[in-house]
Amino acid sequence: MKSDSLPPAGLVLLAALTLGWGTAWPFMKIALTEIPPWMFRGLIAPFAGLFLFSLAALMKEGVRLPNGQWRPLLVAALFNVTGWHVFSAQGLRLLESGHASIIAYTMPLWAVIFGVAFASERITLQRLAGLVLGLAGMAVLLSGEFGIFAISPLGTLFMFGSAISWGAGTVIQKRTVWQLPPLSLAGWQLLIGGLPITAVAIVVDVPHLEPVSAAAVWSTLYVLTIPVVFCQFAWFKIVGWVPISVASVSTQIIPVVAVISGAIVLGEVIGLREIGALVLVCAALALVLLPSRRR
After folding, report:
1. For 30-88, what is each residue's pLDDT tens digit?
2. What is the dihedral angle through the alpha carbons of 162, 163, 166, 170, rounded to the nearest 10 degrees?
3. pTM exceeding 0.85
4. Which of 90, 92, 113, 175 has the fewest CB atoms within 10 Å, i.e. is most exposed?
5. Using an 8 Å Cβ cutoff, are 282 and 256 in contact?
6. How far apart are CA 174 and CA 115, in angstroms?
């Protein structure tokens, strides 16, 4: 039975995970200013999948997928990898990295909605309050003359598309009884979901490629090795130690780190709008992810 608290090694991994996923956003932004989004994601996802396969082999985990698991794997990969990677890359090119990260981490709110609509999950008063707070946070970030929707409507819609796709994939992931270890499962999803992106990149982006700066190259390598590969491994280890709800709540600080990283690395402005949206979204995630208390 899983404990509700992390061991010391888990706390170290959690700190590394928070920094890795939080600082990913400004470096993705740097890479995407020079590398086309299809090419950027088409490089990241399949290579990360192959790396996770290698890691699974070193840990002597099985990588062969049972025949009956192909259909749910394809659907999960479509939402968790293809949809998420394509929409988030397109949205991040048009928005500040901090703003994009706040929208992206509304994923649990969408997962609750999909769970109620398609997985017969019951919505509690606590989760309903979380949804209301989440919507309020988005309203603060989006509304007004200086809201991000007024600045970039298309970028905002792309980022909501990424969060919704990730939320739908999370429900599929949760409702399927997988017969693969987590590392191998993540490797399969990244490979299957990433190859279509690579195919589009070869047709759309390769004929128009231009030389890129060292900053874009190093940013891409950083995103591949730390946020995608290492943090994916750290996440699976953390989930193995504590319930997924506890693990998810513990990562609420990630969008905060992303906003601060965007300010430090890219000079993005942190104002009352960003602070208010962060507070409301983090409170919403806590209500949605924490186990509901029953009398």
Report:
1. 999 999 999 999 999 999 999 888 888 888 888 888 888 899 999 999 999 999 999 99
2. -170
3. yes
4. 175
5. yes
6. 10
CB 201 within 8 A of CB 36: yes
What are 186-210's pLDDT values in tens digits? 899 999 999 999 999 999 998 888 8
The token duo for 9 is: 């090694």
If we measure between CA atoms, which residue out of 18, 12, 8, 57 comes closest to residue 226?
A: 18
- pLDDT tens string 23-39: 999 999 999 999 999 99
Mind spelling out the 3-state secondary structure of 145-173? CCCHHHHCHHHHHHHHHHHHHHHHHHHHH
Question: Exposure of 105 by Cβ count < 10 A (0-12 exposed, 13-18 middle, 19+ buried)?
Answer: buried
Residue 65 CA to residue 141 CA, distance in Å, equals 42
Tokens, residue 177: 């009884």
d(CA 191, CA 198): 10
Q: Cα–Cα distance between 249 and 158 in angstroms, integer? A: 25
Q: Please count the CA atoms within 13 angstroms of the CA of 116 that sit on its side-chain side.
A: 12
How many residues make up the chain in this entry?
Answer: 295
Least confident of 53-57, 267-271, 284-288: 284-288
Instruction: Yes or no: say if 126 and 73 are a contact pair by the CB < 8 Å rule.
Output: no
Could you tell me what percent of the chain has a pLDDT over 90?
Answer: 42
For residues 90 and 105, what is the distance between their CA atoms, to the nearest angstrom? 16
Residue with tokens 């997985």: 119
